[in-house]
């Protein structure tokens, strides 16, 4: 590219596996592809009311059209801080989760630094990380999350990292949550070795079973950056989220915001903060909806493909991470047959962080959140065709 | 700052001069400080209608709450492209003008590169530039804009730059516009020496006198990045703007967006694109309002402070850049007296790009856009007190 010399030079083209593999699903294929919320779970009526209330209030309308503080509106920060159990001064409102991750990377990761990442990993974080570095240390994700002992061993052996990245709740793609004990151990490592934790938590609100493993341990450390968003609850289209930052990182992140985009849309914030009173209800209904969909998907797999996968019923989030039971099965061939049968999912290899880590390739990631129960049942019937 | 190693490390705290100088204006001071639009010029009623239309259309509402294409919505890009006279594929929707500037810097300026900048310069660009470099080559701004001959001389003498930054229409702070002939000459230099033009054009729509000097010359070059925003017409609060990019830079900028914030809010874009039919009317009314305010300010200065300044009636934009006629006057003492008298403006020294360039310090920047005619007259009466 002529004259391209800046930070953009080293960035890869981020594409989903389905794009990268040049597979063209038939138009009527059922797509179990993305961790996006169900349209039915998004509170359009409440948003319409909040929006009308804003524009009918002359003083509020004028304020929403002007500049607002870089860290976010006081009302929105206070609401988020109360939910997170931290001082509002530690909240920075962002343009969504990816924005929070990239702000964190730009703040604490220097060019060429090494960053420990989940393996399998959310590919979007790999893209975000490219703004600073391509050097990663893949850390396996086990049944109870990020393998803290593995990282401890690497650090004891002399490896050094600037940061460690994990999705602690309803992991993307691996579905699991990080246990409370391992959260504490991970924070301990970060404090001992002086690296930052990049805690990516977009699915946290969507727990519909099991026990919350807690985030206070992150908030109590000056080494953890906790990133969340309204994407899974109010919709990706807002591009609205937040970071819970250690106090000493608030000012550096704000200095970045001053450059990058000044602040999150005042209009967006004015509408979102007017949804505070409805938010618990929105989340409650969303959890019920995703609980049903997860159960339908798991039930259909047991019914139509008994024994084909090792699966665990999700306790939250939007993903089922299913391991092929037959070690001799060819995942690539299965994917091609599934596409031909009219169902598309993300093959696990797309999420592998390390070339040596073969476990991911034995998995299929099914995203069930934005498919109806009928679509999920039909998707599994089509998948059963692909297995024959 | 503990462990701060990333790009945020080198960023200064961006503060207005009034903050930096620790001057505390009295609460009832008239503030001629910022290039922000008048509340009366912002189309609240049209926005309320567009917003209601969006949320009452179920399909549109659901779409607005989901992810949308990184370059921007097709409808919005088409509308902007038609206004700019370029192919829609060259438009990238941004989160406002500063976002566009920083995306441009991250795309074409490497760490340590030198960038030519207006002198006096919009301080926000200096802050944006810090994400890549602190090395600048100040170029005087003359009565017909950026001194292209000065830059040509420096380049001929061996200086090399990655980019050159200027505000071509209604310069901030220097009020002037770049002549058509110098636009062409500047593009010629960029093409000859292989640097990029960062053309920052937020005031372009606000012309109320004089002849448009044209932007086609920028759009016809693969060396010009043309940055604009809806900040001065629909309000800063939206954080919505656009870039007109050379074709070869569209993909690199999108790759950055994929990381930095994915895309501009789908909700914002859905509302803004519904204002297309009203936009000409909004701009027409805004121009009339700012024409009146500029005339009131200039008239009051002639009436109450005859001969105190060298001034030219603005042809557009939001600033009057007034030069002190008395070469022995002390601008700092004048500023202190003005604050005490209850009027605040930006002293010119705040905009100086080079330490050796003393002209800026002989100026006062008056921002008249968001002050009523009565406030402007009273502000000048108070300024006259400060001159006594």
TrEMBL record, chains A, B:
InterPro entries: Aminotransferase_I/II_large (IPR004839), Class-I_PLP-dep_aminotransf (IPR050859), PyrdxlP-dep_Trfase (IPR015424), PyrdxlP-dep_Trfase_major (IPR015421), PyrdxlP-dep_Trfase_small (IPR015422)
A single MF term (Gene Ontology): transaminase activity
Keyword Transferase: yes
Aminotransferase class I/classII large domain: residues covered: 43-383
Keyword vocabulary terms for this entry: Aminotransferase, Pyridoxal phosphate, Transferase
Pfam family of the protein (one): Aminotran_1_2
Cofactor: pyridoxal 5'-phosphate
CDD domains per the UniProt record, alphabetical: AAT_like
Protein name: 2-aminoadipate aminotransferase
Organism: Paractinoplanes durhamensis
Classification lineage: Bacteria, Bacillati, Actinomycetota, Actinomycetes, Micromonosporales
């Amino acid at each position: 590219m002529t004259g391209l010399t800046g930070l953009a030079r080293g960035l890869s083209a981020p594409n989903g596996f389905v794009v990268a593999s040049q597979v063209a699903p038939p138009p009527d294929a059922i797509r179990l592809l993305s961790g996006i919320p169900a349209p039915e779970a998004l509170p359009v009526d409440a948003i319409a009311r909040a929006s009308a209330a804003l524009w009918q209030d002359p003083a509020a309308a004028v304020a929403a059209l002007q500049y607002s503080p870089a860290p976010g509106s006081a009302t929105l920060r206070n609401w988020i801080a109360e939910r997170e159990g931290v001082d509002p001064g530690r909240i920075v409102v962002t343009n969504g989760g990816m924005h929070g991750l990239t702000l964190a990377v730009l703040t604490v990761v220097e060019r060429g630094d090494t960053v420990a990442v989940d393996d399998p990993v959310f590919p979007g974080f790999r893209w975000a990380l490219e703004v600073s570095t391509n050097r990663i240390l893949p850390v396996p994700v086990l049944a109870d999350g990020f393998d803290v002992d593995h990282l401890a061993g690497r650090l004891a052996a002399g490896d050094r990292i600037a940061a460690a990245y994990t999705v602690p709740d309803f992991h993307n793609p691996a579905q699991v949550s990080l246990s409370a004990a391992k959260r504490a151990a991970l924070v301990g490592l970060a404090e001992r070795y002086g690296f930052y934790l990049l805690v990516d938590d977009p699915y946290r609100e969507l727990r519909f079973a099991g026990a919350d493993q807690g985030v206070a341990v992150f908030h109590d450390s000056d080494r953890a950056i906790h990133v969340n968003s309204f994407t899974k609850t109010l919709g990706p289209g807002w591009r609205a989220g937040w970071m819970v930052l250690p106090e000493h990182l608030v000012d550096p992140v704000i200095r970045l915001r001053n450059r990058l985009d000044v602040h999150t849309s005042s209009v967006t914030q004015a509408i979102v903060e007017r949804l505070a009173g409805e938010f618990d209800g929105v989340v409650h209904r969303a959890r019920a909806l995703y609980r049903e969909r997860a159960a339908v998907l798991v039930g259909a797999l047991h019914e139509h493909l008994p024994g084909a996968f090792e699966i665990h019923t999700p306790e939250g989030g939007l993903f089922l991470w299913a391991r092929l039971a037959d070690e001799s099965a060819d995942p690539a061939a299965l994917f091609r047959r599934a596409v031909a049968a009219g169902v598309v999912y993300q093959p696990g290899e797309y999420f592998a962080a390390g070339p040596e880590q073969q476990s991911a390739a034995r998995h299929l990631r099914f995203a069930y959140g934005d498919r109806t129960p009928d679509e999920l049942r039909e998707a599994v019937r089509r998948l059963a065709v692909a297995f024959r």
